[in-house]
Amino acid sequence: xxxxxxxxxxxxxxxxxxxxxxxxxxxxxxxxxxxxxxxxxxxxxxxxxxxxxxxxxxxxxxxxxxxxxxxxxxxxxxxxxxxxxxxxxxxxxxxxxxxxxxxxxxxxxxxxxxxxxxxxxxxxxxxxxxxxxxxxxxxxxxxxxxxxxxxxxxxxxxxxxxxxxxxxxxxxxxxxxxxxxxxxxxxxxxxxxxxxxxxxxxxxxxxxxxxxxxxxxxxxxxxxxxxxxxxxxxxxxxxxxxxxxxxxxxxxxxxxxxxxxxxxxxxxxxxxxxxxxxxxxxxxxxxxxxxxxxxxxxxxxxxxxxxxxxxxxxxxxxxxxxxxxxxxxxxxxxxxxxxxxxxxxxxxxxxxxxxxxxxxxxxxxxxxxxxxxxxxxxxxxxxxxxxxxxxxxxxxxxxxxxxxxxxxxxxxxxxxxxxxxxxxx
Length: 425
Known about the structure:
The protein is α/β, with parallel strands linked by helices. It has 14 helices and 14 strands. Helix 4 crosses helix 5 (128-139) and helix 9 (300-318) packs antiparallel against helix 10.
């Protein structure tokens, strides 16, 4: 039996199949408990009045809808862009980055409501359970966590549909034929399940929601300019925009030109591999643009180290470790490393491709006079001493190994000759 002391539960509610059936399940298993639904608007296109009616029809005592789009873009997406965080080289972390924000608002709602517990609809196989629960631990470790998918006997989406139908829970157009599991927010849309579980199956064109197929995209180039200040996007085509406005505009432009589709078999936090297909038009454009701007404004050692930390940053986001000292510390580095990453990048979009057409910055480290193949202030004779010093360790190793007789025959003779030449210098 459930613990009698749990009188109120705040559920992270999306209106999808999983969270819709959790409401009656909680009421059945936590007798007398009030279930409060919290839905965070992170940019998904929902019929909000209908969502409210659905939650109450499913048994929720009330529903809170929090519009957190600006916070999502400003405090979560843009720092992640600045860090260059891409998981396993392909995934732009659209679902991963939303979960800590959603869990944060769920915790705040639970505290306001005086609830003893929080609940989520994540399965025991997935990453999201980790992301939600690590946030609970970081922000409100006293709250009890209820994860129905880990304890109930519903083991498939088909069984979940049957459960909903028997209890009269409205589930919209979800059916045993329409079986994809989707997550949608300002940043992306993900698709999992169904025929995608067979890795040999190509994603069907009818599955995609946000983006045009590259073959259906316009047969003309579309030019767009993205403006940055200190590593953060600030405008499009010279027009200053708020974070949400930048993402929405680039989503429209990118989607029309078939930008941002990714098919990925990724490593989940729990250890298994899974397949996801993602649509991230604006994110793809922003990552490409920022990378090009960094190439002209950031010196090589800082840029190289930033790239390494970007991989670690992506791993932290993917595994739900947003509210951690390490993530905050890396962000402090990213802020400093991006101090001079200001300027504009011109991109051309064409049938799924992003072509870099131009870059400019008042902090550009590219000096045309130095880089030119023509006459310049660069003295080519300086290279001789540089190479001698730069290759010193290589030459010393060759000399020692040749002297120790580690190489035989002609190759040893060749190395001795090289060492002697180096010694003469």
